Amino acid sequence: MLIVEDDSKASETIRLYATREGYDCLLARDGENGLRLAREQSPAVVVLDLMLPRMDGLALCRALRSESSVPVLMVTARSGEADKLRGLGDGADDYLTKPFSPRELMARVRAVLRRTTGPGVRSERSLRGGRLRIDFLKERVLVDDAEVRLTPTEFRILALLVQSERVWTRDEILERAASRDSEAGDRTVDAHVRNLRRKLKLPGQRPLVVTAFGRGYQIDP
After folding, report:
1. 3-state class of 157 per DSSP?
2. What gap in Å lies between CA 80 and CA 27, rounded to an integer?
3. Whether 139 contacts 196, CB under 8 Å
4. What is the number of helices (H) and of strands (E) in the chain?
5. Helix axes 152-163, 186-199, angle to 10 degrees
6. DSSP output for 27-46
7. Cα 174 to chain centroid, rounded
8. What is the model's pTM?
9. pLDDT digits (tens, 9 = 90+) for 80-99
């Protein structure tokens, strides 16, 4: 686990609880060192403060997302919904506001790791006449043979929708692919779907994920 937090008391508290649960921990006090450690050590999960010196948490999250699918859990004193949605929009898998219970944080970490490393569908399926391909075994998505980097949560949502072309409600998506405990609630799903639409946009075609108004989301039938 990589903990990127400039508050020494907060980072030490997180490290203490994480170590008790068996996690090996790396600590970084600023965004630049956090990015360096993430690149060098390839942690299983990143616990990331939003307000950091030298590189803020949002910039760090964007940098990670450009090259890695490591799960990211943001912790911050910013409690506004717009801040939470911005964090999710920049690639965070979950969001927790300060002050928080260290036990709750550990529960969130376990949940995001369980969702990331849990069993998936061992098959491959092509959509859009071969322009878009999803490899469930390797958890890769390609558009016109170019890989599109998705966050773990985005990939799980896409996989869920593709496996059954029915309408999935936001509650179902939260339960199976995102985080039911997320403080942004239904807006969490909306933020991840917006990211999917942007990343998987095919020129001249409708979005792959479409809205079933008043109900939820589905793959374009």
Report:
1. helix
2. 27
3. no
4. 8, 12
5. 90
6. EESSHHHHHHHHHHH--S-E
7. 12
8. 0.61
9. 667 667 777 778 888 888 88
